[in-house]
């Protein structure tokens, strides 16, 4: 090289490997876009199943062609195409990924592989879901940096990290009397406060621990997976979180005790929206269901803050009895409602359900039902006054950003913890976990949408302001993202 020539500095190259489910893929794709905007090369590893669904539901796959520094790679998830990939199937999905997808991934990033250290597109670092404990071994083997990005809530993940302590202190397992997928009965007092979860003192009760704690079998596959994850999380070079400092400061400081590099860069959807707005560039949907946009013109005709939006996300399922209890509660509350009824989200065939006249009439007068909604757009709509949610972390953050108070009806994993934080810590709504009775549903909707409407809206508005400030220039998430980019640039291949 001539003396006056400056060396060509290659942009860093990250390989992102999400858990192949709607929530994590959506969130990680948004992170990928943020990276692209900062001139980082991104390889996004999707399963064939997710890629095919993205392709058939959105213009997403084409949209990403606008970033020359982005590429998709795909691997099989090993499950037959017709298998459901609902929440209760996650352990199966993980087993299958380990057997089928992980060997391909390992080959891809190892010496001689397409993205190996000796290739022309070497990876600077791997960013994978925290539940992928295999990533620590692979990264160590190749001598590459690893950042874990758990797309669940930090408060939820921290409760996972506390599991060994809870077991050691005898707070787990509970004494379980009987258990079914939907209703749990215990001889333990579920309202008893948990004492051995540092940073959550006085907040979490037994009933607010993640759903998988409701077992007397500590050898259950999901518990074993989480205990393994607990050991691997501190081995990563850093942890990325979809949250912002002012929402979860105490929990983030607990994480700093186990991993010095913490990047709280969320709410990621809002972060990306802000950066794209600066470039007058549109956002895209990462949906793996086709969005029914007919609900938007319906919302346009409803009065301000009069509609409650109901959705239980992409994985939760309910029984037919629960469906009818919620339905009666909604209709009896007198509130207008927009309800997402995802195909397959109710056990049994919905065609066999006989709908009582009062429900069909009430729905015709005040309701709108769709199979999948453009949720971010819905939550941003001025007609929406509240969100009846399962508290998946993406939904919770989307609601926070739009300043919409919540009614919390958690289904599983971190959602029990999230709903407790929404109700008790952030005071952004009402937690009705473990109940599903039409009288309670009616009462709680009236409380949120009428009796305490102003109080909740004011609080939600304040939190929305903090969330948006965090992703604005100079905000905590904005700064953490810059620090993340700088740290990645300093990583050696
Ligand atoms: N979502 C959507 N339309 C719907 C329901 C959900 O676009 O009708 C999106 C929602 O905006 C969120 C994601 O699906 O980004 C669900 O993720 P979350 O973490 O809330 O829950 P999960 O589906 O993982 O349980």
Automatic annotation (TrEMBL):
> Keyword annotations for this protein?
Glycosyltransferase, Transferase
Q: Pfam families in the record, alphabetically?
A: UDPGT
Q: Which residues cross the membrane?
A: none
Q: Name one GO molecular function term.
A: 7-deoxyloganetic acid glucosyltransferase activity
Give the E.C. number(s): 2.4.1.323
Q: Which domain of life is it from?
A: Eukaryota
**Gene3D superfamilies in alphabetical order:** Glycogen Phosphorylase B
UniProt xrefs under SUPFAM superfamilies: UDP-Glycosyltransferase/glycogen phosphorylase
Query: Does the keyword section mention Transferase?
Result: yes
**Top-level enzyme category:** transferase
Which reaction does this enzyme catalyse, per its entry?
Answer: 7-deoxyloganetate + UDP-alpha-D-glucose = 7-deoxyloganate + UDP + H(+)
Q: So what family is this one in?
A: Belongs to the UDP-glycosyltransferase family.
- The protein here is known as 7-deoxyloganetic acid glucosyltransferase
């Amino acid at each position: 090289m001539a003396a006056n020539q400056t060396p060509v500095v290659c942009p860093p190259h990250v390989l992102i490997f999400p858990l192949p489910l709607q929530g994590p893929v959506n969130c990680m794709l948004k992170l990928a876009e943020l990276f692209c905007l900062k001139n980082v090369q991104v390889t996004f590893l999707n399963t064939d199943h997710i890629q095919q669904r993205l392709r058939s539901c959105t213009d997403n796959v084409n949209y990403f062609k606008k970033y020359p520094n982005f590429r998709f790679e795909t691997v099989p998830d090993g499950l037959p195409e017709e298998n459901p990939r609902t929440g209760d199937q996650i352990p199966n999905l993980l087993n299958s990924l380990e057997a089928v997808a992980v060997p391909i991934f390992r080959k891809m990033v190892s010496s001689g592989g397409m993205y190996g250290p000796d290739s022309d597109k070497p990876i600077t670092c791997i960013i994978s879901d925290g539940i992928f404990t295999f990533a620590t071994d692979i990264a160590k083997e190749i001598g590459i940096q690893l950042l874990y990005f758990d797309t669940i809530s930090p408060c939820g993940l921290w409760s996972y990290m506390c599991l060994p302590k809870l077991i050691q202190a005898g707070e787990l397992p509970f004494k379980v009397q009987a258990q079914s997928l939907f209703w749990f009965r215990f001889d333990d007092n579920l309202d008893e406060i948990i004492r051995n979860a540092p940073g959550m003192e006085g907040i979490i009760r037994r009933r607010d621990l993640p759903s998988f704690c409701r077992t007397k079998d500590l050898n259950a596959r999901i518990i074993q997976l989480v205990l393994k994850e607990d050991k691997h999380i501190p081995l990563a070079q850093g942890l990325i979180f979809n949250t912002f400092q002012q929402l979860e400061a105490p929990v983030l400081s607990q994480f700093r005790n186990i991993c010095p590099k913490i990047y709280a860069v969320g709410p990621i959807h809002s972060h990306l929206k802000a950066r794209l707005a600066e470039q007058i560039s549109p956002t895209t949907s990462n949906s793996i269901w086709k969005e029914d946009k007919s609900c938007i013109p319906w919302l346009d005709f409803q009065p301000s803050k009069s509609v409650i939006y109901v959705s239980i996300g992409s994985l939760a399922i309910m029984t037919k009895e629960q469906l009818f209890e919620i339905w009666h509660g909604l209709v009896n509350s007198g509130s207008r409602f927009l309800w997402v009824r995802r195909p397959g989200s109710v056990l049994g065939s919905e065609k066999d359900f006989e709908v009582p006249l009062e429900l069909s009439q009430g729905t015709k007068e005040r309701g709108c039902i769709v199979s999948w909604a453009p949720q971010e757009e819905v939550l941003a709509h001025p007609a929406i006054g509240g969100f009846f949610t399962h508290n998946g972390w993406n939904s919770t953050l989307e609601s926070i950003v739009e300043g919409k108070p919540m009614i919390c009806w958690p289904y599983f994993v971190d959602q029990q913890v999230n709903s407790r934080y929404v109700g008790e810590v952030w005071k952004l709504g009402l937690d009705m976990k473990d109940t599903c009775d039409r009288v309670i549903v009616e009462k709680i909707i009236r409380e949120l949408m009428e009796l305490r409407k102003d109080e909740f809206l004011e609080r939600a508005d304040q939190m929305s302001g903090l969330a948006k400030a965090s992703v604005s220039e100079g905000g905590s998430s904005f700064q953490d993202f810059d620090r993340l980019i700088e740290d990645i640039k300093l990583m050696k291949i």
